[in-house]
Amino acid sequence: MPAHVPDLVHPTAPSWPRRRMRRLRAAESLELLGGTPLGRLCLVLYGTPTIRPVNHVVEQGDVLFRTHAGSAVAEAVRAGDLLVAYAADDIDPATRLGWSVVVNGWATPVEDPAEAARHLARIDSWIGDEDGVKDQVIRIRPEVVFGHRVVVEEEDDG
Fold this sequence. Notes:
- It comes from Thermomonospora echinospora.
- Pfam families: Pyridox_ox_2 (PF12900).
- By secondary structure, the protein is of the alpha+beta class.
- 17% of the residues lie in helices and 44% in strands.
- The chain has helices spanning 26-34, 72-79, 113-122; strands spanning 19-23, 38-45, 48-59, 62-67, 82-91, 98-109, 136-152.
- Strands 2-3-4-7-6-5 form a six-stranded antiparallel β-barrel.
């Protein structure tokens, strides 16, 4: 016979107001994504799902990030037909309110040197790039954009 399992609800757990997920339009989702510098690139490398934190910018609906030309990500993109997901969010741990955006699309290298240089000047590397090795810019052209905002049910206007 299994032992009795005690109630795992903490006696001082706060009483949270009811929340719901409100779907966002693609334009609002991309605007939120463009307002935060760090996200997560999700892709399959060597047959295994992989998630990498990267800095990004959003320009004309595309998500752009930098990596070094010899990275596994850059090599996978150069091999062609790389479908990726890109995610970022801003959820307040105290209120449990915020937003989450996921972009699904094809990743391609930015080949034009002038365009790549312009983006490199705008995208900081979250781990630093003093030696300038993160010189490859990758573009994600969204096919699907999923965005949700977590709201208090009473504040949800539809």
